[in-house]
Amino acid sequence: MQIQNISRLTDVPRKTIRYYESIGVLPEPERKPNGYRTYTFADIERLKLVSGLRKLEFSLDEVSEVIAMRDRGVAPCGVLLEMLGHKAQEIQQRITELHQLEEALHHLRELGRTFPLDDVEGKNCVCHLVSER
Q: What's this model's pTM, rounded to 2 decimal places?
């Protein structure tokens, strides 16, 4: 199967597939005499796993770790469960930080509304408040 087929089946752009090959996340595929890449169903399954991990915001290093385990014949399930837990904790931390940022933005906006809106130099207006962050 050619790259456009595997791209369509996995919803991964061809450019991304080529990139994954270049960094070793996907193996270099066989090539036809005309130079076209030829993919197997195993390649599709591997790319689906890579794509799923990336959609869950796993880094390429983390993806490589899971793939390398599979390549060595080791089931990555336990490691992946642990990684999922860590990722969930990271997301919770980011949510907390985003809530804090949201509160800071609302506070700055309310405080900034008490300043003049025509200070071109930005010394006595909301621009000054933002500059001091």
A: 0.79
